[in-house]
């Protein structure tokens, strides 16, 4: 994101879990962010003291979650101040008692050493000498998402065992708090569905990262700090640290990657895979689209079968169920390149029946299959900010980790094949219905003599405020319908979502109504425009 796109966020330095290794390189601290359950290793130069930057933070971010975080900071500071006053009083009494007792003599050399370390900005284990400081953290250019977390750690002397959080104090003279900058991401990792939730297993240490934010975590933490989350459906998923380091680099897999389909979504995905150092072979039905990526370092595959046969993991992202089937089952298709051990990941948004059929034929040839449709648009694809919904082969999901981290901000593992397709259709059903409602409101405002801009301003001040709402309305008001998500594809998703509801006798009247409006827009030649062009279906 651009500088200032994501606001600073208050956090405090805490002690890391004993089995979490400190990243190599520059000095950094383990930070817990207020108002969330997120934690991260933060470099010294990326922290700033809370009080001098409090007003700046409040001006930048007026969101409800941020206000809750600020309230949590203030509550923490009030409690800390009360404890400090009490412990300071106790320390003074203790000092006087020591001075009046001659047989106690002078303090030991060890105590002198601890005092010295306190004055130099080191951590002191004690109850009254030094105050906890709260820092603010923000992300800027190059970062993928706002950072929000909290906890208590501080630098400690080498060779000393880690102290408990309750014993940590950080002196006022500490220079350890500055503004956070860096690339961050959160990812879900799948355990076996049959595994129980293991909170006591050290491998599943409490290191829960927000599903909607991108926590900054260094690479060493990726498989070590996980927390299992049991979902209502009985499937389990783990959200883990991204391997995205603070400097924005990731460790790409050494497996050869293939990619089929260079549309609005596929193009951004391939670009990010290449940027992060993956070896990628590309194919597209119209070969000219491959040229740009060949210049960026990709290899050219002549057919889907050739790509699959020469690569370890092949991704595909095409338009609809028919295209997805043709790609696998057609002449020189994916299936012809599948042999035992070959991996195929279908990122197309299709129905569960289609993806189940494809999985069966791939697996029957000894291949491994993962469905991984993505939630997002062209801009999010270009920015590497997609949300990936995966299901199928869990081991393959893990093998794809560096790829998913390059292309997305969050990844969910949803269990058996078909689950991701269903979830994706539901997500797009909600999005498509919302877009039609926005268009309906804007046009109704216009025909009743109300200002469309004022309507947008009002919505942006209310609970419906979102990036999606603002961007789509702005584009409509500017008459800009350049595709970020093709209208024909959101209509396809609505159609498939309605069929999904039909298969289980579940009513979908809102989606059905929205679908009719998109069909009207298609009849008005809006198929290849952005979904926001549904607006034109309402113009008399």
UniProtKB/TrEMBL annotation:
Higher taxonomy: Eukaryota, Metazoa, Chordata, Craniata, Vertebrata
GO MF annotation terms: DNA binding; NAD binding; NADP binding; nucleosome binding
PROSITE patterns: PWWP (PS50812)
GO BP, sorted A to Z: transcription elongation-coupled chromatin remodeling
GO (cellular component) term, any one: chromatin
Record's compositionally biased regions (Basic and acidic residues): 79-132, 149-169
Domain of life: Eukaryota
Domain (PWWP) ranges: 1-53
Transmembrane segments: none
Keywords: Chromosome
Name under which the protein is recorded: Cytokine-like nuclear factor N-PAC
CDD domains per the UniProt record, alphabetical: PWWP_GLYR1 (cd05836)
Family as reported in the entry's similarity comment: Belongs to the HIBADH-related family. NP60 subfamily.
Region (Disordered) location: 1-23, 79-174
Coiled-coil parts of chain: none
Localization terms from the record: Chromosome
